[in-house]
Amino acid sequence: MSSFTYDLLAEEGAARRGVILTPRGDIQTPAFMPVGTAGTVKALYTDQVKETGADIVLGNTYHLMLRPGAEEVAALGGLHSFMNWQGPILTDSGGFQVMSLSKLRKMSEEGVTFQSHIDGASYELSPERSIEIQCLLGADIQMVLDECTPFPATHDEASHSMKLSTRWAKRSKAAFLNQPHRKEGQALFGIVQGSVYEDLRKESAAALQDIGFDGYAVGGLAVGEGQEEMLRVLDFTAPLLPKDRPRYLMGVGTPDDLVEAVSRGVDMFDCVMPTRSGRHGQAFTRFGKVNLKNARHANDPRPLDEASSCPAARDYSRAYLHHLIKNGEILGMMLLSWSNIAYYQSLMADLRQAIEEGNLASFVARFKAEQAAGDIPAP
Amino acid sequence: MSSFTYDLLAEEGAARRGVILTPRGDIQTPAFMPVGTAGTVKALYTDQVKETGADIVLGNTYHLMLRPGAEEVAALGGLHSFMNWQGPILTDSGGFQVMSLSKLRKMSEEGVTFQSHIDGASYELSPERSIEIQCLLGADIQMVLDECTPFPATHDEASHSMKLSTRWAKRSKAAFLNQPHRKEGQALFGIVQGSVYEDLRKESAAALQDIGFDGYAVGGLAVGEGQEEMLRVLDFTAPLLPKDRPRYLMGVGTPDDLVEAVSRGVDMFDCVMPTRSGRHGQAFTRFGKVNLKNARHANDPRPLDEASSCPAARDYSRAYLHHLIKNGEILGMMLLSWSNIAYYQSLMADLRQAIEEGNLASFVARFKAEQAAGDIPAP
């Protein structure tokens, strides 16, 4: 098997249960992709990431092009070998981080020039260079360079921005087809833009499908518009996407965001939240968020979730986790990042099973009730 | 088996191969004890610590009495349960860190009062309170409170300090015998002081043996006197200790220190060096120290040591380790701490085997040659 295909296995309402077949392994969807920004899912061994049930991880083109550099990673055998992860990897285009992290950006029709946030060195990123970098890294799923339209944007601004992204998408596809480093079975995803405007999302989705991609992402969400508005946009955007291709909601989100977006037909997600929050003492559990910094955990002998299959959630007391976080111990960040990724993966597994069994509606109701009830009280 | 015993299995010159039997498991000696300062061997899971071959870890009374507190750990089931380590634990008395970390110390015959370096709160530590804390923690091997004589010290200063430590050792033993929290099979070690003066070391060792302890530590070394002087002191101090009890050289050291001290009859060691250096990008290997921060590793595809049984040393390129350390990634600290502890444990295993086989002299020669030859050159 050396091609990239998506099989839709089951549906419930708009929700989809599927599998993406890639030369590096299958991706069960709906899928959450842990973020391995600079070639590491922070504070986790790749073995652990795999054991939590993650089929695919994400790498950030922006970070990797600055350090150690795409050509350097290629010379070392590619990103999979570099970071010791043999499953599929998705890389973003670098565009989002150029906008959010770099200094002294200059946008043009050609692309963007910017200075590294690390050492001020100057770089260029064009649709063609982004694809070249992603192929050098060896990414199994690559993303077109786009402009992530800021929020809020007027209809005119959003239209202008979306049209630029569309022209870049076309150039990205051409560059992808011509890339000498590209391997059989690697895929390229387009990204629907258009901010909160239905007509623009429609125009973007249609134009991208004219170009033709292996999957379609929804971009420009989770950028400050709030959950309600995000879901409203998803309500009219998801149906614009072809049923026989995976759909990826970029940069999302909380467990509740995932449940809501899966219900609207999204197949793939990525977010730094479980690892970043974990490093800051915040746990995601069946019972909602638990802030381990809080002094109420100082003498609590109970684990985060005794029913969890993750040792981090099951085998350590809240008192110990509190102690580690309070003392800035690396093990605290390791355990909570692990526990959070495990919780996200178990949530996705539950969603997949619920859709297969036609039980999504009741699963969502139970999930909402458990999260609303909050953390289990001390005995 | 609920008692604490030491069996001497083999000797070569002054070097000893033995085993300490404790209710929580055997400790093969010579042994290196990873330091779990505040209830965690920094950046390692306890499973990993065990798998590297460590039979016992160390906990620091000073850190644990401040946070979370000895009574708090006891209420949570003791230190083993708290940190998820089921093997033996040795705790120090707290005295060394009071001297090196705390503020506003006041020493008296009774003990020491000090302010926490964390929040300035006031604490008292006496021989009796130190034992009480160590019993509350549930330590399998406990240390008497002593004054670690600073270096350099005049003969008068060292004598005065050693005599205070001897009086405290006597009180510690009485407190240990009377401790209601003490469990069968828990052991108490005395600590020989006397700085660099042979007559004082002799006086200290004799006085401690009069009191009677389950093991004997050599204190007041590795405090700035240099390796040559340390070994000179060991040369006349180790023979002062009973053959049927384990001997522990506190706070030592580099791999070369361990080899030299084992050759002089030391059985137990602890040191933060492998974990602390690991967090700062320094690896200990068969080929000597390797500083992963150095740019020469940036494109090196080779692992630290392809023959290592530790995945951290075997399965990741130096280029990747360099990248992680350069980017301040937690995984870099995790991998190098792991690799270093694994190297220390494999060195101890090699030393044990060499003594068993009567090959210590040739092992030491080979070790010195490998370390002197330095890191393997790039291919």
Describe the 3D structure.
Chain A is built from 15 helices and 16 strands. The first copy, chain A, is an alpha/beta fold. Chain A has two domains: 221 residues, Alpha-Beta Barrel (TIM Barrel); 95 residues, no CATH class. In chain A, helix 7 packs parallel to helix 8, helix 11 runs antiparallel to helix 14 and helix 14 packs antiparallel against helix 15. The radius of gyration of chain A is 20 Å and the shape is globular. The model of chain A has no long low-confidence stretch (mean pLDDT 96).
How many DSSP E strands of chain A? 16
Separation of termini of chain A? Answer: 53 Å
The CATH class name of the largest domain in chain A reads Alpha Beta
Radius of gyration of chain A: 20 Å
Task: Give me a quick take on this structure.
With 379 residues, chain A is of the alpha/beta class. The first copy, chain A, has helices at residues 46-51, 61-66, 70-75, 79-83, 95-101, 127-137, 155-178, 198-211, 227-237, 255-263, 273-279, 311-314, 318-326, 330-356, 360-373; strands at 5-12, 15-22, 25-29, 31-34, 57-59, 89-91, 103-107, 112-115, 122-125, 141-143, 187-192, 215-218, 247-249, 268-271, 282-285, 288-291.
